[in-house]
Amino acid sequence: MMMAAALSDARQRPQTVVRRWDRAGGGHADLGMELPPRSLRLNPSRVPKARLLVLLSLGLLGFAGHSATADDSPFPGPRGAGLDLASRADIWDRPPTNFLERFVRVSRDQVVAFALYTHDAGVLKMTAQLFPLRPGEPREVRLEFKQGRQWREVAKAPVIYPGWSAHFRIPAWDNTRDVPYRVRHGDSAMFEGLIRKDPRHKDEIVIASLSCDSNADRGDRREIVEKLLKQNPDLLFFAGDQSYDHCEHTAAWLLWGHRLKEVLKDRPVVTIPDDHDIGQGNLWGEGGIVADSEAGDSGGYFYPPKYINMVHRCQTWHLPDPVDPRPVAQNISVYFTRLRVGGIDFAILSDRQFKSGPKGKIPQMGLRPDHIHQAGYDPKAVDRPGLQLLGDRQMAFLNAWGQDWAGAVIKAVLSQTAFCGAVHLHGSKTNRLLADLDCNGWPQTGRNQALAALRRALACHLCGDQHLAVVVQHGIEEFRDGPFGFTNPAMVNSYYGRWWWPADEKPGQRPIPGSPLPWTGDYLDGLYNRITMMAYANPELGDMRAMKASQRDPSVNLGDGYGLIRFNKRQRTITFECWPRYADLRRGDAAQFPGWPITIKVEDNDGRRVTGYLPELRVLGARDAVVQVIREADGEILYTQRIAGRSFRPRVFGPGTYTVKVGRDTPEGWTARGLEPVSTAAKPLTVRLP
Ligand SMILES: [Fe+2]
After folding, report:
1. 3-state SS, one letter per residue, for 518-539
2. 653 and 519 fall within a common domain
3. Phi-psi region for residue 542, left (φ > 0), alpha (ψ -120 to 50) or beta?
4. Ligand 1 mean position to 13 CA, how many Å?
């Protein structure tokens, strides 16, 4: 019994204390001691003396000697030895000793945990997620569809280890019908759901946006699931940090899906992994190189590519095929792609995979390479030429996507984190940080280029990661000239809280009229990026200890919950809603966080000052055509958009001559060159589309 207690303690500790490498420095305080990778525990001669004493006092070596060994790990090398212990094929040889190890041992009729799917361009992709299988159990699952009253098996797929996932790709998918599905394993295990038809005939497409499911709360997520079932979104988007158990992705991912399966099972779902999912506190992927520490600030990935690819496979295989599937360094997979749901066209990015790590590339201006404390620093000093944000391949994708409107009425970009640092206090109300480079506000040139690409497509941005919900309008050259961004709140905000709290406690320029919040309007973030704060949802408590203690208390506002975005195709509007975890839907919009809902016009995502209009276009041969405007002086595409109806007056932002192109789904079909701004009385141009 003594042994079991020590063992349990030892197994918990690396996951919950040592592996916590919080973003903003506050986390360092509770790091306590540093333990070596688990593989080292097997050989006392390799452990430094001081550490050896600590390990012996924890009973760690005794534990390591008696069960799982590095040789059994499916992941290579010392960094791979301690990964996914709770879900390894050999768990059946030893008793469970902690929460996740107990959780994954389900009865055999429950081994199909959940399934995720999307369909786009006539291809259905589905991932079935299984709990760990016992030796001798079939390593295969079957997919069945219901046709009339009959269930018919349509495909089989092998269960892939590590990760225990299985994958189905069904071509020639007819997306005009609802199709009940079930995934079966063995004689008794089954997971049942519905593949929805594409909701193209609905005026309003609703997407729920969630992230950051704190592992301090191992309870259910019923209060969120129940609300989502009532609000019935057409698409669920999980922006990352589905797992905070750095070394235990499979078990944590299973727990995530198990808690949410009632709402996951019968609608398309986008999941993208963030830093914690792949076992790092921060990630600057730098094209897949090897990171020198778990902190990741040198750039790259700390854990073996086999672990990273397992996470990518479990979380993203069910997305539409990657648009540019070439792997990055170490053969790490990529997943950036496009998904259309009901006429809303989502670019799905992996915003940290190509990004440069800050360490050694910019002058250090704080205690860590990724933190800036010096007010008044020159922002150009950290915005060095050659630093990458989205990377060339994702920028090429975004630029092509912005001009292709097939199946699209409104566009939006989904990624992990925000294109600004819209936060002041990190981890506690006493920890003020000027800038945290672990956001898409840095490098600033990459940020502005990415936002300009969104603006050219009138796309808003949805993300997570920050734990603090905000809606901002980005400024690129000026305040309010860029697209809107909605950072969703943490689902459960007991991992690392953040606050929007200007040091002078003053509103910015031009505060948002009618907002109940004191600090809205125009601000520079800590990277001197322009942002206009529209709304934010600060936690009411002041530090993580208090927030953890209250994490399941509905009467306390921790600023956690989720976003709901309504894309109205008829009105061409986007409404951002923000719902507290414990909101009571019967109270209607009053139950949302103060400052929400916020409704914008799609065209508000291009906030440049309009100086004039080109001759009105009258389009024959097509409704809702696609119009592109190019500035001839430099060949810059100002925007490409789907218009509403048959006539359109192209706006421009300065004098000069312009080329206008019009087409059905892409701007190919009709072209006029040398157009100049004219008065409203000018004669319209007739556009005949072939
Ligand atoms: Fe997070």
Report:
1. CCCEEEECCCCCEEEEEEEECC
2. no
3. alpha
4. 20
Q: How far, in Å, from the CA of 466 to the mean position of ligand 1?
A: 6
> Is residue 38 scored above 50 in pLDDT?
no
What is the spatial distance between Cα 595 and Cα 486, in angstroms, rounded to a whole number? 13
CA of 552 to the centre of ligand 1 (A): 18
Question: Whole domain around residue 81: which residue ranges?
Answer: 2-103
462 and 576 both lie in a single domain: yes
C-beta separation of 617 from 624 below 8 A: no
Q: Residue range 600-609: average pLDDT?
A: 98
Distance (angstroms) between ligand 1 centre and the Cα of 211 equals 7
> What confidence tens digit (pLDDT) does each residue in 49-73 have?
333 333 333 333 333 333 567 678 9
Give the least confident one: 8-22, 48-62, 436-450, 623-637.
8-22
- Whether residue 624 sits in one domain with residue 579: no
**Residues within 5 A (CB) of ion ligand 1:** 212, 241
pLDDT at residue 71, as a whole number? 75
What token pair was written down for 413?
């970009």
On whether both 511 and 632 belong to a single domain, the answer is no
* Claim to verify: residue 583 and residue 682 sit in the same structural domain: no
Separation of CA 151 and ligand 1 centre (Å): 40
Question: pLDDT digit string (tens) for 105-137?
Answer: 999 999 999 999 999 999 999 999 999 999 999
Identify the CATH number of the domain in which residue 626 sits.
Answer: 2.60.40
Burial of 231 (0-12, 13-18, 19+ CB in 10 A): middle
Average pLDDT estimate for 180-192 = 98
CA of 281 to the centre of ligand 1 (A): 9
Q: Is residue 676 part of a domain?
A: yes
How many angstroms is it from 22 CA to the middle of ligand 1?
A: 9
Residue 198 lies in a domain: no
Structural domain tally of the chain? 3
The answer to whether 532 touches 554, Cβ cutoff 8 Å, is no
Mean pLDDT of 630-655: 98
**256 CA → ligand 1 middle, Å:** 14
Distance 213 CA to ligand 1 centre (A): 7
In this structure, what token pair is assigned to residue 111? 């081994």
* Rounded distance from Cα 246 to ligand 1 centre (Å): 12
568 alpha carbon – ligand 1 mean position (Å): 29
Distance 611 CA to ligand 1 centre (A): 42
Structure tokens at 282: 């921060």
Domain match, 639 and 596 both: no
Which domain CATH number covers 466? 3.60.21
C-alpha of residue 78 to centroid of ligand 1, in Å: 26
Report if residue 205 sits inside a domain: no
Same domain, yes or no: 490 and 639? no
Based on the fold, state whether residues 542 and 642 are members of the same structural domain: no
Q: Distance between CA 334 and CA 154 in Å, rounded?
A: 28
Q: For residue 212, report the distance from its CA to the centre of ligand 1, in Å.
A: 4
Q: What is the DSSP letter of 86?
A: G
Please give the distance, rounded to the nearest whole angstrom, from the Cα atom of residue 579 to the centre of ligand 1.
18
CA 282 to ligand 1 centroid distance, Å = 10
pLDDT tens digits, one per residue of 139-177: 999 999 999 999 999 999 999 999 999 999 999 999 999
**Of 70, 88, 103, the domain-final residue:** 103
Q: How far apart are CA 480 and CA 484, in angstroms?
A: 9
- Residue 197 CA to ligand 1 center (angstroms) comes to 32
Q: How far does the centroid of ligand 1 lie from the alpha carbon of residue 243, in Å? A: 9
Give the ranges where 377-487 is alpha helix by DSSP (H). Answer: 391-401, 444-456
Of 52, 71, 103, which marks where a domain is finished? 103
Chain segment 268-281, per-residue pLDDT in tens: 999 999 999 999 99
Task: Answer whether residue 235 is part of any domain.
Answer: no
